[in-house]
Write the structure tokens for this entry.
Amino acid sequence: MDLIIKSMPFLLTGAAQTLKITLIAVTLGCILGLFGGMGRLSKNRFIRGLATCYVDFVRGTPLLVQLFIIYYGMPQVIQGVKGILEVSFALGPFSSTSHIPPFVAAVTACSLNSGAYVSEIFRSGIQSIEKGQREAALSLGMTSKQAMRHIILPQAVRRIIPPLGNEFIAMLKDTSLLICIGYAELTRQGQLIISSTFRPFEIWFAVALLYLIMTLTISRLVDVTERRLGVNGTHQS
Amino acid sequence: MALIKVRNLEKSFGKLDVLRGIDLDVDEGEKLVIIGPSGSGKSTLLRCLNLLEEPTGGSIEFAGVMLTDRETNLPQIREEIGMVFQSFNLFPHKNVTENISMAPLIVKNYDRSKAQDIALGLLKKVGLSDKADNYPAELSGGQQQRVAIARALAMQPRVMLFDEPTSALDPEMVGEVLEVMKELAEEGMTMAVVTHEMKFAQEIGDRLIFMDEGLIVEEGTPQQIFTEPSNARTRSFLTRVMQ
Ligand SMILES: Nc1ncnc2c1ncn2[C@@H]1O[C@H](COP(=O)(O)OP(=O)(O)OP(=O)(O)O)[C@@H](O)[C@H]1O
Ligand SMILES: [Mg+2]
């Protein structure tokens, strides 16, 4: 017990990092997801294809591999591009390292990952709005864009909140994979303490508890938000 | 001069030919009633008139503008063509006043107070001034449909299309909606109404068309068609719905 209390400050800094990455990733993921979701429903075949490729690739491959592609793979690409710029265009010289900071890699990978899942949430949310809503809007002289913005999205957002909450929780747990690039989130901090104290049971249990507290808090917040909007939600016929 | 001119209109969904060559004129101020059995293409015809459904053949002219031309600015045309749906399709996330004032605000760029005035005026007209702040789900079907009519009128359309506006209503609510429509007819609004309310059709209809299998089978005044239908299919349809 003593050990757990002593390790708490260290674990809490990890938990803070976990929350920070999750918040940034899901926020950026929502922006990406709005475009991704609309892209999946676009009439333009090229845009639709692009959005589908993105969503399929991300959802069909492990987050860990996506993380590795960005953290280990991208420096190689950047190096190559630098080389071309220096040799062919006499630009530079550039700094010799192309190392991507773990924070940048973490945010990039998690946001791109979240964006794909949120795209699907937005797509199904938009599609769940009855066809008659769009038709009524169009019949009043609204453009497709106006109908989307004023009629369809505001209704879709209400239905999207619960699955968005689930995505938030899933992302929060998935950030534990960032241990693999040495990012100092909660799991990584736990591992570090164990390597000096050799008390895996207590520490992993404490780590689990901290995750649980965070996920439970989030699902409560989602419930409250849902109920708040639900005041209008009861007006859904 | 005809406000709407439909020529050889065709519409198919895949292999299914739903409209198979419709010719139709609707004059300014005319009340056209469309009847026919289920699946005959009445809704599809109406939905083609404001291009909610894209015709696969023929042409539609509205106030001198070819709707079926690619370059036609559809939203602008639709402002002038009001539509009332069988299932109301009110915006559930907006209250009654907002439902009505929304399109004037967004589409016509009216300022808030002007749009609000229009909405309140129309609510009075349809007898729902006391429901201004309610949400659609708090209204009965008849009240919702009256709001839907007010919503369409807020754009000051030159014609109103009604697709079975009372079919989704409990019988005791049909009257209040028909009453509003009658008033509108008396004010001289151009109307095209798909309905199964034969008495109402007779009262307001200047002209009635009977559709079957994607064609206009018979056309005349309601009086003519109800008393001496010339077509066998019209006769059998009428005996079925009149009993
Ligand atoms: N979007 C669509 N896709 C495929 N088929 C359709 C579509 N809309 C209508 N149809 C078909 O077209 C035919 C005519 O439909 P329509 O709704 O115009 O008939 P209606 O005369 O209005 O019938 P009702 O009295 O039942 O409303 C029907 O067979 C219907 O199944
Ligand atoms: Mg119909």
Notes: The interface with chain A takes residues 50, 52, 75-76, 78-79, 81-83, 85, 87, 89-93, 102-103, 106-108, 135-138, 144, 148, 151-152, 155 of chain B (CB under 8 Å). The mean pLDDT of chain B is 95.
